[in-house]
## 1
Amino acid sequence: TQLLEQSPQFLSIQEGENLTVYCNSSSVFSSLQWYRQEPGEGPVLLVTVVTGGEVKKLKRLTFQFGDARKDSSLHITAAQPGDTGLYLCAGGSGGRRALTFGSGTRLQVQP
Amino acid sequence: DTGVSQDPRHKITKRGQNVTFRCDPISEHNRLYWYRQTLGQGPEFLTYFQNEAQLEKSRLLSDRFSAERPKGSFSTLEIQRTEQGDSAMYLCASSPPDRDNSPLHFGNGTRLTVT
């Protein structure tokens, strides 16, 4: 069974602070996706990384896929209240079409 | 692109009753997924369809759960003899054909409460 562990589970910070969220597994994934989910809504894709060591930037968000494709991180610079939400990583494994989701990191950014 | 639509948004039922949820995927998407999410957790995979064929089903899925996608378009998820542990958000997602690492497009879910 492939498992994805996210840390921290919960993070409450002040506006303007930086933060990093981690997604770790003992399994190798062919791709890693990050989603954000707001209350009462489904998750929405932020980014997909597929190559070991790959770094992608989306405005103030920086995503990295580990060299061995077993882990990933999400770094947010100068967090804003609009960044509040549940951040989910999800791993894909080629032959298995369904994504495996991590347990999520709930981020709260206080104004 | 009208997005993935799920109905109903909320369902309250008594233990032992049967419930059925509906999902309408994005029209050109041939892949459809059902996930379950409990409070504070990530989505847990239930089952996956490609067109009308159910290609994957979680081993965690009780035989009280059944899903169909008869014409390869909309899908239904039925839970028979509901239990309090079935209370959760049931999420449907779809993705386009023939693309590796396709993102999942989620609906806003059906929240089930079993009393």
Note: The interface with chain B takes residues 4, 6, 9, 30-31, 33, 35, 40-45, 48, 50, 88, 90, 92, 94, 96-104, 106 of chain A (CB under 8 Å).
## 2
Amino acid sequence: GAVVSQHPSWVICKSGTSVKIECRSLDFQATTMFWYRQFPKQSLMLMATSNEGSKATYEQGVEKDKFLINHASLTLSTLTVTSAHPEDSSFYICSASDPSGSRRDTQYFGPGTRLTVL
Amino acid sequence: SQQGEEDPQALSIQEGENATMNCSYKTSINNLQWYRQNSGRGLVHLILIRSNEREKHSGRLRVTLDTSKKSSSLLITASRAADTASYFCATYRAQKLVFGQGTRLTINP
């Protein structure tokens, strides 16, 4: 149980285009999902917290107009990188927490999306 | 900023040996978690240890927690090539999971 999927697993786009990444919790409902960015050989940095039915909370230094987050249902959150530039190339990972029972302190991570902006 | 600092940053050992990774953190915690990340993949939750626990086992994994020193260690016994990965400790700060810098573990056959 507690599986999180991401789509696509990798994407290459031209500079100036927008890219949408989906994060789904497959077998549980996630009221909260998180989006992280990871540069090569570095740790995960939290970008934003996505709450179902409300606006996302962004971390300091993350541009909300550039990284649009939508959490329209209890099983789906999307991250749209708008007007992507080469410096946005990174590994984007989502996670979801299952608020029920003993797993509420654990986050379950998607497999990540490798974004390359040319 | 990162909550945890991990050492070593990289560790290379022979298959069959034990691997020990350490994590230090700065603020008080309710629990500390360890995750594994294979290259280019997502994170896999390994183990959670609560602040009132001192040691926890899961298969070949042994985690210790010393809240007085604000440190934790992850021991992998009888390492296998498949254990090659990056390992991260993580704690909650303001309801957000904050990761250490990670240890890149390489198991040589």
Note: The mean pLDDT of chain B is 92.
## 3
Amino acid sequence: TQLLEQSPQFLSIQEGENLTVYCNSSSVFSSLQWYRQEPGEGPVLLVTVVTGGEVKKLKRLTFQFGDARKDSSLHITAAQPGDTGLYLCAGDHAGKSTFGDGTTLTVKP
Amino acid sequence: DAGVIQSPRHEVTEMGQEVTLRCKPISGHNSLFWYRQTMMRGLELLIYFNNNVPIDDSGMPEDRFSAKMPNASFSTLKIQPSEPRDSAVYFCASSPQGAVGYTFGSGTRLTVV
């Protein structure tokens, strides 16, 4: 079983602050995805990282894949209330994705 | 593009009843996945199909659960008989075959009383 551990489990910050959330595993993945899920909806894909050490930016969000392809981080700069949600990482192996338990982010105005 | 369409959005049923959840994947997506989400266990993969063929059903909890994909545009997940512990949000997701990253539907919130 390939497990993904996400930390912190909960994070509450003020608008304008920066934050980083983490996704760690002892397993190597062929790729890793980050999703954001809002209440009452399904997860929405934000990014896929494939290469060890890869860094991708999506506006104020920066995603990094670890060199060994076992871990990843998501950094948000100047968080906004619209960033509130459940952030899930998912590791892909053999054609299927295993999800972490997520980080619930609340950004207060 | 209407996205992945799931029905119903909410289902409340009594223990012992049969429940059928439905999913229409995005046209052209060859892979379809059924996930279950609970507070205790997070998102769990139940089963996935490639080109309408079940590839891995190792996540299906027990024989009470069954899934079918009779054609490329429709899949069902059936629970018979349902039990209170089956209460969860069930998601369907699809992707082009070989692609990484899925498009999820809005889910079906199932409550078994």
Note: The interface with chain B takes residues 30-31, 33, 35, 40-45, 48, 50, 88, 92, 95-102 of chain A (CB under 8 Å).
## 4
Amino acid sequence: NAGVTQTPKFQVLKTGQSMTLQCAQDMNHEYMSWYRQDPGMGLRLIHYSVGAGITDQGEVPNGYNVSRSTTEDFPLRLLSAAPSQTSVYFCASSTRQGANYEQYFGPGTRLTVT
Amino acid sequence: DQQVKQNSPSLSVQEGRISILNCDYTNSMFDYFLWYKKYPAEGPTFLISISSIKDKNEDGRFTVFLNKSAKHLSLHIVPSQPGDSAVYFCAATFWDKIIFGKGTRLHILP
């Protein structure tokens, strides 16, 4: 049971390039989400999904796309990278709405856009 | 507008003493409140939660208190240990969304 896995761990992009951050979970969780963590800003929700085929926007969705074709995978796409997207990205999963609403986080992807 | 606020960016506590981390919120519709702990270069891990209909929840050394009238919650760690040095995030849930505070860095001093 690997939990939540994210690839890559580190990435450097040039402005304007596109890329996909991968996220997978093997816990059969319905709910998956993407966050970015910036110094002094805490964790901000980018996009989330409550099940396969269903996605919705979080607090800071601009510049990012998501899709959820399977329960296990929830990739995050940067369409045209900008320096403002330099951040650490975390993927998380949970049962949809348990009593504790506990989310399991991946180890993160550190992205630098130059 | 910040709905979940952690007004102390950092806190230093002597080992063995009590650590108290505070969190304020603005939305009275939040249904659960959670605390997460984060070490450097790792993802956050769940610590403890409390339903909005309760005022206290305890799990070992960790206790969360909720004061709904003041829209305030706090996490008490007793006794504080060196491994408790980390960033602590307060979070609140509403429907399918979860909103995090900016975090408080806790330093446990020897």
Note: The interface with chain A takes residues 6, 9, 32, 34, 41-46, 49, 51, 89, 91, 93, 96-103 of chain B (CB under 8 Å).
